[in-house]
Amino acid sequence: KLPGNRNTLAKYGGQHTVTAMPGDGIGPEMIGHIKKIFKYCNAPINFEEVQMTSIYQDGDMEEVIYAIERNGVAIKGNIETKFDDPAFVSRNVELRRRLDLWANVLHCVTIPTVPTRHKDIDIVLIRENTEGEYSGLEHESIPGVVESIKIVTQEKIERIARFAYEYAVLNGRKKVTAVHKANIQKLGDGLFLQIAKDMAKEYPTVEFDQMIVDNASMQLVSRPQQFDVMLMPNLYGNIISNIACGLVGGPGLVSGMNFGDVHAVFETGTRNTGTGLVGKDIANPTAFIRAGVDMLRYVGCHKHADLISDALWEALTEQGVHTGDIGGSAKTSELVERTLRNIERMMPRLD
Ligand code: ADP
Ligand code: MG
């Protein structure tokens, strides 16, 4: 359940239109699997595909933005960011900023048969997705001196903090932990912490906790079960989210959701491209399929979402179909096929 009111969804003839942006790396293969699964269970989704990759094409960003503004919803693969070229601004970051997709939400849960160091992890990670270190303001003032500017605003901290508390209340969560470095970044992170703390008073049913990001990292890898909802500014949120994904089995398992006031973009939690896995049929499709399930829930197709989610869960757990990243030897297509067989058996539920 999500805070806010998001009803600007394109729906014609009983079909939801959703923008699909395959991106780079394994994205196109994964979008292909999602389409196959959706089609198999007659999910009422009509994909409108738009291309945007790391190879810059004049006007492609505009085309993607128009498509997402029109449909309200998108599912995307990640776009490769070259970091040896200072002029190349991450197109993923640009897209999030242009659409003002200010909330990033990941749900990290252990899957019983996936080998992990810790059991019973269930953490919701809520990350401010537009400002802070990602403001994109850097310059070399004189040779050898670089200013990299982190900007935070009361307005944006308030909206992400509000989102976290509302999310906690709507989903029966008990605690929100604000992650910061206010001992060093006294003004910037100090403001973040102060706002989170003050707002907590409006939510008496949710316990407030705060933790410095270094300690939060250590606590996560040693005793992750203590965390419930984590509220984080942009960069710490990125790092902490990756730690949490690693704890539950890695980049192939967790999906990620991005919300603005009116738009939503679904992708994988760790936003990898998996370039080394392309064309080998070995990538774990779970993260992408879960992104598809999140998207179905978002547009209100709960029965289809539950069907696909349960079919995938059974394939991963009872049937133990594991790809290489989680210690198995199954191919991507074997997990997809097994999921389809499970869907076939569970299909009568839709009637
Ligand atoms: P690269 O672009 O070099 O492949 P990424 O940053 O995209 O690296 O991914 C980080 C690591 O996670 C890589 O080792 C990659 O193979 C792995 N990875 C990413 N996505 C998946 C996936 N869906 N299944 C299995 N492994 C994955
Ligand atoms: Mg990559």
From TrEMBL:
Q: Does the keyword DNA damage apply?
A: no
Key word Lyase present = no
Question: What Gene Ontology cellular component terms go with this record?
Answer: mitochondrion
Could you tell me which Gene3D superfamilies the record lists for this protein? Isopropylmalate Dehydrogenase
A Gene Ontology biological process noted in the UniProt record is: tricarboxylic acid cycle
Concerning SUPFAM superfamilies, the annotation shows: Isocitrate/Isopropylmalate dehydrogenase-like
Q: From the Swiss-Prot or TrEMBL record, what is one GO molecular function term? A: NAD binding
Domain of life, per the record?
Eukaryota
The cross-references to InterPro entries, in alphabetical order and at most eight, read:
IsoCit/isopropylmalate_DH_CS, Isocitrate_DH_NAD, IsoPropMal-DH-like_dom
Q: Where is the signal peptide?
A: none
Give all residue intervals belonging to the Isopropylmalate dehydrogenase-like domain.
17-339
* Localisation: Mitochondrion
One Pfam family assigned to this protein is Iso_dh
Q: Which family does it belong to?
A: Belongs to the isocitrate and isopropylmalate dehydrogenases family.
Q: What is this protein called?
A: Isocitrate dehydrogenase [NAD] subunit, mitochondrial
Organism expressing this protein natively: Pristionchus mayeri
